[in-house]
Design a protein that fits this description.
Layout lengths: L8 H21 L15 H12 L14 H12 L1 H24 L1
C-alpha cells in the first residue's frame, strides 16, 4: 500500500465496482432505467443480467490522488472544474439554437 492513502487502489477498485453494480441493479429493479434503440432488449431481466456479467467478472481500476492538505486545497481542486459544466451547457444551447434555426429555415 502506498503511504498516505487510506485504502489501497485494489480495495478502492473492488469497493467501487461493488457499489456501482449494486446501485445499477437497484435502479433497474426500481424501474428507474430506460432503454432505447438496440438496448431495448435489456428490459428483459435475463438480458440485463447477461449484459452486466462481464462487468462483474472484469477487474476494475480507479485513479487515486494524493490526499488533499485541507479545505483550501479541495476548493482549489474543484474550482478548476466548475467552468466545465456552464461551458458545456452554453455549447449545447448554442448548438440547439443553431440546429433549430436551420430547421426553421429549411421549412420555408
Amino acid at each position: 500500500m502506498r503511504p498516505l492513502f487510506l485504502l489501497s487502489v485494489q480495495v478502492l477498485s473492488a469497493l467501487l465496482q461493488g457499489l456501482f453494480l449494486d446501485k445499477l441493479r437497484a435502479a433497474y429493479q426500481a424501474g428507474a432505467l430506460q432503454f432505447f434503440g438496440e438496448h431495448t432488449r435489456l428490459i428483459d431481466p435475463r438480458a440485463f443480467a447477461a449484459y452486466l456479467a462481464p462487468l462483474c467478472n472484469t477487474k476494475w481500476g480507479v485513479y487515486c490522488k494524493r490526499p488533499f492538505g485541507g479545505p483550501k486545497q479541495v476548493l482549489r481542486y474543484l474550482a478548476r472544474y466548475t467552468h466545465c459544466v456552464p461551458s458545456q451547457i452554453a455549447a449545447r444551447r448554442c448548438f440547439s439554437s443553431a440546429r433549430l434555426g436551420s430547421a426553421r429555415a429549411s421549412r420555408r
